[in-house]
Amino acid sequence: MENGGQAVETRQAAETRPAAETRPAYEKYLPLCNALLSRDWETANGLFQNTEECEAIITTKEETALHVAVVSGRANVFVRRLVGMMLPEALALKNSGGYTALHLCVMVGNKEAAMVMLQKYPDLLYIRDGYLAVSGDLVHTIAAAFCQKKTLVYLIKESKSNVHNKPFEGQLGLALLMETISSKFFDVALNLVRTHSDLARIKKENTHGECALWLLAGMHTVFQSRESLSWWEDLIYRMYACNEGVPLRQHGGDTEDQTYRSSSTLIQILNESGKYLSITSLINLHN
Question: Is the whole model's pTM more than 0.90, yes or no?
Answer without folding.
Answer: no
